[in-house]
Amino acid sequence: MTQKINLPVDRPKRPRNAAATREAILRSALAAFSRHGYDGVGVREIAQMAGVTGVLVNRYFGSKEELFAATVEVVFADNKMFDSDSTTLAKRLAAKIMSKTEPIDPLLLILRSAPTPRAAEILRESIARHIERPLKASLPGPKASERAAMILALVGGFQLFRKVIGSKALAHAGRASLSRHLRTTLQGLIDSPSTGAARIRRSRVN
């Protein structure tokens, strides 16, 4: 049974604009699912936050599950990060992760909704389609699928400890130093095993 959530109810009626209404519902859904998880909030509460009725939410999205799936698609649809040369990927990823404006909602959406099996399935499929597979395609060399998954695990774990748990070691580390270590670690996963082995051999010779 969905637990009742006390959310703001004094929301003005929204003007009749289909695109704006849909966007407002998705914004409210992202905030609600990130805060309470898939099982912790219902369509009625999300509708209240968006200033619409639950009937209208179902008219736009069909069901809570479909609304969650649409919210997840919006969160993970932007995969431009992996469109360009993999030689600059570590630098770009590190810069994005270290950005002060990088939103935390996607991470909280995963953490708080993944315990629900169907929500976890939706998250897994969307992440694979929008992020993991494009990342795999951009990586040179063998075992690209494993390395792509490890990169995502590294990024997610880093953000978890830094932004959610608030690790003191990460919070107190110098920004430049932390970014440099992050780039180095990411680059080690981006490089193909043969490239990495060649670098080790060169460093031993030198």
Descriptive terms for the model:
single chain, 206 residues, mainly alpha, 0% strand, disordered N terminus
Describe the structure.
It is a single chain. By secondary structure, the protein is an all-alpha fold. Helix content is 70%, strand content 0%. It contains eleven helices and no strands. The longest helix is centred in the middle third of the chain and has 22 residues, at 117-138. The radius of gyration is 20 Å and the shape is globular. The relative contact order is 0.10.
Strand % is under 5%
Q: Termini separation (Å)? A: 65 Å
Residue-averaged pLDDT:
85
Number of helices: 11
Q: Give the low-pLDDT segments.
A: 1-10
Radius of gyration: 20 Å
Helix content: over 70%
The main β sheet shows up as: none
SSE arrangement, N to C:
HHHHHHHHHHH
- Counting DSSP E segments of at least 2 residues, the number of strands comes to 0
SS-derived structural category: mainly alpha
Explain the layout of strands and helices.
Layout: H1 18-36, H2 43-50, H3 54-61, H4 64-76, H5 89-98, H6 105-113, H7 117-138, H8 144-165, H9 168-172, H10 175-190, H11 193-205
